[in-house]
Amino acid sequence: MKTGNPASDDQDQAVTPNRWRALWEVLIVAAKLGLTSFGGPTAHLGYFHNAYIRKRKWMDEQSYADLVALCQFLPGPASSQVGIGIGVMRAGLLGGLMAWIGFTLPSVLILVAFAFILKGYDVGHAGWISGLKIVAVVIVAHAILGMAQKLAPDKVRITIAVLVATAALLWTVPYSQVILILFSGFIGWWMYRNVPVTPVIKMNVPIRRSLAVLCLITFAGLLILLPILRQAINMEWIALFDSMYRAGSMVFGGGHVVLPLLEQELVPHGVVSKDDFLAGYGATQAVPGPLFTFAAYLGAVSMGGAGAFIATIAIFLPAFLLIIGALPFWNVLRGNSHMQGALAGINAGVVGLLLAALYQPLWTTAVLSPADFAVVCILFVLLNFWKCPPWIIVLLGIVGGMIVNQI
């Protein structure tokens, strides 16, 4: 005989389809972003803001800004961590996994194809790549404009943003970005420490704290144990996993920073040749999605399909462990008056970092002529004022780059 509350049974039957529907929705939206998000981590934040916040309103503006600040503070691929965090809060841990798969898989497949088919082919000066660089300038400029209006609305925070941008451009030592974020947080705490607490919308974080602590312990444990295991067991796949995991754990500032670190890890040890590395670097700049998927190309060059899988999992694993470990404690921290002041400064600092990235490396590598500048202006007007969808901007950027390249 069936026992239990019929209403509860009906509710359970109603919840399951909704959960699968949410997971499917997260996967589809993330996959669209993975196919159209060109321009690196700074541009991705603009794409995410448009798709997740403006269009679908999966999160309020302040929570998104706080999540971006948290991910900027953590090591690893900041844009991927933001996507994972949004997926987790939308549909649980599986939602975070779906968000990562959707955003990451397209560029992984493309770069593995480059490894097997276009190995050594020089695409660095192709017109369509120039067009994608121009698109990245437009997307980042659009993101900065929108975020600055909300995150740097007064003279104190706009000053923080400009100071951080200036320092980021002139001071390019390792870990400078995380130091600037800490500096921004300190200034924000000092300037706003006596401001009354602003009520925040509680972020839906369906993660137990015990699981979060376990993830943080696992992150630190692997960072310590993998090099030991690599020395004890001389196996190629363990060495590859260790190199990629360490790269994913030590990088602050996103995908652009991981490229020289990977070169130091792999090229001197003969895992990949310098020519193969540079060819993959050119391909990585041309594909959408996170720049960390460059690891898939390197893994495919060194160990084939299995290497691509191992390298991809290893370099993104720290991002998962850190964001899942940090999110359950984020609501408590961001509701504290001192933390709110620090977050105000950190959010302004993030705007400054985006402003610096708009100039270097985006503007300096994309806008090389008056014709390039004209294309930037046209696409910005179409995106910001005519509200054209990003995929149209991408296509127009490709066409514009090819035309400019023929002039």
From TrEMBL:
Q: Which UniProt keywords apply?
A: Cell membrane, Membrane, Transmembrane, Transmembrane helix
- The reply on keyword Phosphoprotein is no
Give the CC-aspect GO terms: plasma membrane
- InterPro entries (alphabetical): Chr_Tranpt_l_chain, Chromate_transpt
Transmembrane intervals = 26-48, 97-121, 127-148, 160-191, 211-232, 282-301, 308-330, 342-359, 389-405
The keyword Amino-acid biosynthesis is annotated on this UniProt entry:
no
Extract the GO molecular function terms from the UniProt entry. Answer: chromate transmembrane transporter activity
Localization annotation: Cell membrane
UniProt membrane topology term: Multi-pass membrane protein
Record Pfam families: Chromate_transp
- Family, per entry: Belongs to the chromate ion transporter (CHR) (TC 2.A.51) family.
Name by which UniProt lists this protein = Chromate transporter
Name the source organism: Paenibacillus polysaccharolyticus
